[in-house]
Amino acid sequence: MNCARILVARAIFPPTLARLRQHFEVQDNQADNAWSAHELAQQLADKDGALLTGVQRIDAPLLAACPRLRIAANMTVGYNNFDLQAMAAAGVRGTNTPDVLTETTADFGFALLLATARRMAEAERFLRAGRWQDWRYDMFAGAEVHGSTLGILGMGRIGQAIARRAAHGFGMRVLYHNRSRLAPALEAACQAHYVGKDALLAQADHLLLVLPYTPQNHHAIGAPELARMKPGATLVNIARGGIVDDAALAQALRSGPLAAAGLDVFEGEPAVHPALLDVPNVVLTPHIASATLATRRAMAELAADNLIAFFDGRGPLTPVG
Ligand code: DGY
Fold this sequence. Notes:
single chain, 321 residues, Rossmann fold, seven-stranded parallel beta sheet, six-stranded mixed beta sheet, 13 helices, 38% helix, 16% strand, binds (2R)-2,3-dihydroxypropanoic acid
């Protein structure tokens, strides 16, 4: 048993909590209260480490109030809740959970693409409302997925897993844009072709966003980018809210050029821009791309492993920054 004190900031799987208790003095939040920044700082004030769910901001004001803190372990792959500069200045490490969620998240990205292009949510709402009277030749006719061109913006592990599904499973032409180009062997495995962002916007029948959120990526897809997309294109965002300008997106769904959008993440979530709730041609899900029980367990376990390895003196397993 280590003498470190750990805060688990939200409810997690009881077996992971039990394992943490074998190593640390643990304060849990199985009541699953969503603490304000001030409450989080109060709870963390006497802790050495934290297990977080990726939404609790670790920034300079919090760090000033938590002088003992040495590590913040997200149970998410994204870590835009970390102010890495402030953490480095305070000597606090950050960790995330890469790899364990890659295939599950790629499955969901593909599911959302299919649901969006084939208008499944709209069609289900129509059926549930008792409005289905007969068969019509163009009823909920959507866009083709197989054989079409998929554009992927951001080509990390999840982007590559989506590309493999698209190329090998659906015979799609896969184009991608990323900060850096993949090594030739990786490009070949994904059958993906590197293009500039403008070409990606202009050529994709379906554009899937999987890039991390950074201040530089804020509104990477805004009104000008949406205007450059192919008429009738589909946009799918499983990356982070704030990468898309949601107000501009609602406008592009109403008056073109987009035919449809699938969104798992939102600017300012859990709030959703009201204009998006008013347009029919959008599939909305509450940030669940990694949500299978097996994957969420693996994410929680990896976050716990990071804390255990760090306080054992082995260093964090999957550090960020
Ligand atoms: C992640 O792991 O970053 C997912 O978006 C879940 O928050």
